[in-house]
Design a protein that fits this description.
Layout: H1 2-26, E1 46-47, E2 53-62, E3 68-75, E4 78-79, H2 83-91, E5 97-101, E6 104-116, E7 121-136, E8 139-157, E9 161-171
Antiparallel strand pairs: 1-4, 2-3, 2-9, 4-8, 5-6, 6-9, 7-8
Length: about 170
């Protein structure tokens, strides 16, 4: 009898815990409008050309001696069609500049990041990203790619330095 009572109590606690866990995971998916996540495993992104943003990335690769190995550039990219993108743009980039391009006013921000390759030989698909980490849309301890740009596949060697220079424009209404 004690075993049956114990089993009922344990399964009741588990039964109450699971819905609250599922609710936090699916909270973003139940928002009205477009959320951050498509489902529990995929981020909801759109092409920048279909948004108020324009994304430009220049990638410079130098070897351990500082000699130029390669320069790549990417126009356009993907982003999350959510207020988290505006927040990241407003809070995490440098000085704001207003420019006019093709008779459209934009707010311009720049961001530079850099990494040194620590593996012996690595092939890298150059998907450059700017990400945000934390408790996002009911998903605890995640890092999501707010902005991303694609490039070509390239090979780098140990101690090569990859420098990404981002220019992101947001159309001003």
């Amino acid at each position: 009898m004690k075993l049956i009572f114990f089993s009922v109590v344990v399964f009741s606690v588990i039964g109450l815990a699971i819905p609250s866990f599922v609710q936090s995971i699916t909270a973003d998916h139940l928002e009205s409008g477009i959320g951050i996540f498509k489902n529990e495993n995929q981020i909801n992104t759109i092409l920048s050309k279909d948004s108020k943003y324009e994304i430009f990335v220049w990638v410079e690769i130098r070897n351990a001696q500082g000699e130029l190995v390669s320069v790549l550039e990417s126009m356009h990219g993907e982003l999350i069609p959510h207020e988290i993108t505006d927040y990241t743009f407003n809070e995490n980039f440098g000085k704001k500049e207003i420019i006019t391009f093709d008779n459209i006013k934009y707010e311009k921000r720049q961001f530079i990041d850099q990494q040194t390759i620590s593996n012996e030989f690595t092939d890298i698909i150059t998907i450059r990203t700017i990400h945000s980490c934390g408790d996002i849309g009911g998903h605890p301890d995640v890092c999501i790619h707010i902005f991303q740009a694609r490039g070509v596949v390239l090979y780098v060697e140990k101690d090569d330095v990859i420098k990404n220079q981002w220019v992101i424009l947001r159309e001003i209404n």
